[in-house]
UniProtKB/TrEMBL annotation:
The keyword Manganese does not apply. Keywords: CBS domain. It comes from the Bacteria. This is Mg/Co/Ni transporter MgtE. InterPro entries: CBS_dom, CBS_dom_sf, Mg_transptr_MgtE_intracell_dom, MgtE_N_sf, MgtE_transporter, PRC-brl_dom, PRC_barrel-like_sf, SH3_actinomycetes. PROSITE patterns: CBS. It comes from Nocardioides massiliensis. Residues 285-352, 354-412 form the CBS domain. The keyword Flavoprotein does not apply.
């Protein structure tokens, strides 16, 4: 090691970029791997879990790390790109140690609390060990948060014990700072028991966003541990197209029960999408694009596409239709590109900025037809219409990729140019 500080806290490592000696980023830190020892020696830090291109998680031994500072981790440049597989002797700090209930021995006093971080130090022999434990006490009376302590690991009882019901407050706080796709990768890699604890602690909106990024198998497993009422609430928070894909994977009786518990309008959108073949424009589309009347102004259109819940591809186009404005709408008059909106006076009407020179997709269009259509018109989204020219929804390039890529694409080896040491 060359320029590492005497102590590093694990929670501050998570998310740091990992660079090779040439200054090229090879990934991000996602967790710290430690092994507990039966003797009086502190737990040994054996390596980091690093997320590389494509959300694949690999193991990086501490011997391959040359420097750690506040902004980055630097490696020797040698990276084994085999997927990380946790051994039974290993413990993941962020995934398994955070929120563990422990007792602190301070003189004659014993304090109960939960782990919210751990400190890592490098010894004289160049090994890294878990030396300090940060613990917070439960809040008392009107105080939401209790007192915090940072103590020597030897003064902590229960660090090595697996709990029956471990909390998830601190891990969830970390997940909430990640993008949904990154949080989904973390949840996918958790042991089943820990995954259940985290799912129970996430709020509905966040869990819905994470579910949209998980594989069908993971989605079905998580839905199976939720009670029916909460499962229906989660489906309502998801995009209708993602909810339809998920419900289609459930047993028919379960699917029908959950649809019956959803709000009627939400369930209607999902049922309509499920009526189309999966690998068609109708089966991939979302029924909630930005839809405007022809007398809307450019300023109103820009206000709609600024909505934070819109994906980049959905915000790229607004669809101008005659009333009604809920799919299936009145006749689709044309689309307006966000770049065109930005060039027009805010007070002018969207009807004057229409692009009516592109063809529209039909609901029965195959996945190959959708791909060819987006490529031909250089689009990231396209309208889907019925025989009367009414807008049914929009299919986006991310919808297309979700259905074109193989289900196990996240687990496939990557061609990153990294060396396998």
């Amino acid at each position: 090691m060359t320029t590492s500080p005497p102590r590093v806290f694990a929670a501050r490592l998570v998310g740091l970029p990992v660079f090779d000696p040439q200054g090229d980023q090879v990934g991000k830190v996602r967790d710290v791997v430690v092994t507990m020892r039966a003797d009086a020696s502190p737990p040994r830090v054996v390596g980091l879990v690093v997320e590389v291109l494509g959300r694949r998680r690999v193991f990086m031994p501490m011997t391959r790390i040359t420097a750690i500072d506040a902004d980055q981790v630097v490696t020797t440049g040698l990276l084994n790109v085999r997927k990380f597989e946790q051994r039974h002797t290993e413990t993941l700090v962020m995934a398994q140690l955070l929120d563990r209930s422990v007792r602190i021995h301070s003189g004659e006093e014993i304090v109960n609390g939960t782990v919210y971080d751990v400190g890592l130090e490098q010894t004289r022999t160049r090994d890294w060990v878990l030396s300090r434990v940060a613990v917070t006490e439960p809040g008392k009376r009107f105080r939401r948060h209790g007192q915090t302590h940072v103590v020597d690991w030897r003064d902590v009882e229960g660090l090595l014990r697996t709990e029956e019901g471990q909390g998830a407050i601190h891990l969830v706080a970390t997940l909430n700072e990640m993008r949904p796709a990154d949080a989904a990768t973390v949840i996918h890699d958790l042991p089943a028991k820990r995954r259940g604890e985290v799912v129970a602690a996430l709020d509905d909106e966040r869990l819905a966003a994470v579910l949209e990024e998980l594989s069908d198998e993971d989605q079905v497993e998580i839905m199976g541990i939720l009670d029916s009422r909460r499962a229906a609430d989660i489906l309502e928070e998801m995009g209708a197209d993602d909810a339809a894909d998920l419900i289609a994977e459930l047993p028919p009786e379960t699917a029908e029960r959950l649809l019956g518990l959803m709000e009627p309008s939400e369930a209607e959108d999902v049922r309509r999408l499920m009526s189309y073949e999966e690998l068609t424009a109708g089966g991939m589309m979302t029924p909630e694009p930005v839809i405007l009347p022809p007398d809307a102004t450019i300023a109103e259109a820009l206000a709609h596409v600024r909505a934070p819940e819109l994906t980049t591809s959905l915000a790229a186009l607004a669809y101008v239709c005659r009333p009604p404005l809920e799919p299936p709408t009145g006749k689709l008059l044309g689309v307006v590109h966000i770049q065109r909106l930005l060039r027009e006076p805010p007070s002018s009407l969207v009807a004057g900025a229409l692009d009516s020179g592109i063809d529209y997709l039909r609901a029965e269009a195959s996945i190959e037809d959708v791909a060819a259509h987006l490529a031909a018109y250089n689009l990231v989204a396209a309208p889907v219409v019925d025989d009367q020219g009414r807008l049914l929804g929009a299919v986006t390039v991310d919808d297309l990729l979700d259905h074109m890529l193989p289900e196990d694409w996240r687990d496939r080896p990557l061609s990153t140019g990294a060396l396998d040491g």
